[in-house]
């Protein structure tokens, strides 16, 4: 689909297309209402600006669709397809990296009571592990802010993939 097609979609179809990007009604409605977009950059700017900042409730709802980093997404819906594509750049993880990610994920979940979320696209496993370790020192409020930013980055990347 290209931007012109997206701009012309009926609102309900546009909402359905956006939901797997970021399952936050406020964001979906804002992006749909901002159409038509003149270019991809303005669509991506809306994706960033219309979401920020996400509330704790919005983050919690959106997180329900994200698998652990380094694990395959469950199901065969659009969210799982997006996640698989985003994590594909990690390649096949060697046993040491896989073990460190599993241990880091478990420690993160114990500390913050949710899966560790990071925009995986464009990052190496080493970068992801370093971010996981750094973020373990965050306060709950700091981490909530970081998770919100990561969700927005992921949403913009997914939208860009749809419109490319």
Structure report:
The relative contact order is 0.16. The protein contains nine helices and no strands. The protein has helices at residues 3-8, 11-18, 25-34, 40-49, 56-63, 78-88, 95-112, 125-135, 140-163. The longest helix is centred in the last third of the chain and has 24 residues, at 140-163. The protein is mainly α. The chain has a single domain, classed as Oxo-4-hydroxy-4-carboxy-5-ureidoimidazoline decarboxylase (UraD-like).
Q: How is this fold's topology laid out?
A:
Elements: H1 3-8, H2 11-18, H3 25-34, H4 40-49, H5 56-63, H6 78-88, H7 95-112, H8 125-135, H9 140-163
Protein name: 2-oxo-4-hydroxy-4-carboxy-5-ureidoimidazoline decarboxylase
Keywords: Decarboxylase, Lyase, Purine metabolism
InterPro entries: OHCU_decarboxylase, OHCU_decarboxylase-2, OHCU_decarboxylase_sf
Order of helices and strands: HHHHHHHHH
- Which CATH class? Mainly Alpha
Shape: elongated
The largest pleated sheet is described as: none
List keywords for this structure.
164 residues; mainly alpha; UraD-like; elongated
What is this entry, summarized?
The protein has helices at 3-8, 11-18, 25-34, 40-49, 56-63, 78-88, 95-112, 125-135, 140-163.
């Amino acid at each position: 689909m290209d931007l012109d097609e997206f701009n012309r979609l009926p609102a309900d179809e546009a909402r359905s297309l956006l939901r797997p990007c970021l399952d936050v009604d406020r964001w979906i409605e804002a992006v749909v209402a901002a159409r038509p977009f003149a270019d991809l950059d303005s669509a991506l700017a809306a994706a960033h600006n219309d979401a920020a900042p996400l509330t704790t409730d919005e983050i919690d709802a959106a997180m329900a669709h994200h698998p652990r980093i380094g694990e395959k997404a469950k199901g065969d819906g659009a969210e799982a397809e997006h996640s698989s594509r985003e994590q594909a750049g990690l390649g096949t993880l060697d046993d040491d990296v896989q073990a460190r990610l599993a241990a880091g994920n478990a420690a993160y979940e114990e500390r913050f009571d949710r899966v560790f979320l990071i925009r995986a696209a464009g990052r190496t496993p080493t970068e992801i592990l370093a971010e996981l370790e750094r973020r373990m020192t965050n306060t709950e409020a700091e981490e909530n802010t970081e998770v919100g930013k990561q969700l927005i980055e992921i949403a913009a990347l997914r939208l860009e993939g749809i419109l490319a």
